[in-house]
């Protein structure tokens, strides 16, 4: 598992991303991905699931039609770790291609 980041490290990591916001309690980051249709949304989820398996870190997410709502946290650490930011960056790359 990956250790919980300090508030300073978390804020610095968040500043490297765009489109992700810190959840109110500071223990998770979230982003809403909106695609052109369900097929694109589900293709993203399939690719992101493979990335999550590779990293060994998994999203909390939901899908409604062409929208995928993602929340990332490190359950084992009770907050945000480097793995959340690694997975967020991987998801951004997948959504952009
Ligand atoms: C043993 C295994 O690495 C852990 O259970 C991992 C798997 N994926 C995980 N994903 C997330 N988001 N949080 C975790 O704490 C977590 N733990």
Automatic annotation (TrEMBL):
Query: Its catalytic activity?
Result: (4aS,6R)-4a-hydroxy-L-erythro-5,6,7,8-tetrahydrobiopterin = (6R)-L-erythro-6,7-dihydrobiopterin + H2O
**Which major enzyme category is it?**
lyase
Q: Which SUPFAM superfamilies match?
A: PCD-like (SSF55248)
InterPro entries registered for this protein in UniProt: PCD_sf, Pterin_deHydtase
Keywords for this entry? Lyase
GO BP terms: tetrahydrobiopterin biosynthetic process
Q: Which domain of life is it from?
A: Bacteria
- Family, per the entry? Belongs to the pterin-4-alpha-carbinolamine dehydratase family.
What name does this protein carry? Putative pterin-4-alpha-carbinolamine dehydratase
């Amino acid at each position: 598992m990956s250790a919980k980041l300090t508030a300073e490290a978390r804020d610095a990591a968040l500043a490297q991303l765009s489109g992700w916001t810190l959840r109110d309690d500071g223990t998770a980051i979230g982003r809403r991905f909106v695609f052109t249709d369900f097929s694109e949304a589900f293709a993203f989820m399939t690719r992101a699931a493979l990335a999550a398996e590779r990293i060994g870190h998994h999203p909390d997410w939901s899908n409604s039609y062409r929208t995928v709502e993602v929340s990332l946290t490190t359950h084992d650490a009770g907050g945000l770790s480097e793995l959340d930011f690694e997975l967020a960056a991987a998801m951004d790359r997948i959504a952009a291609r």
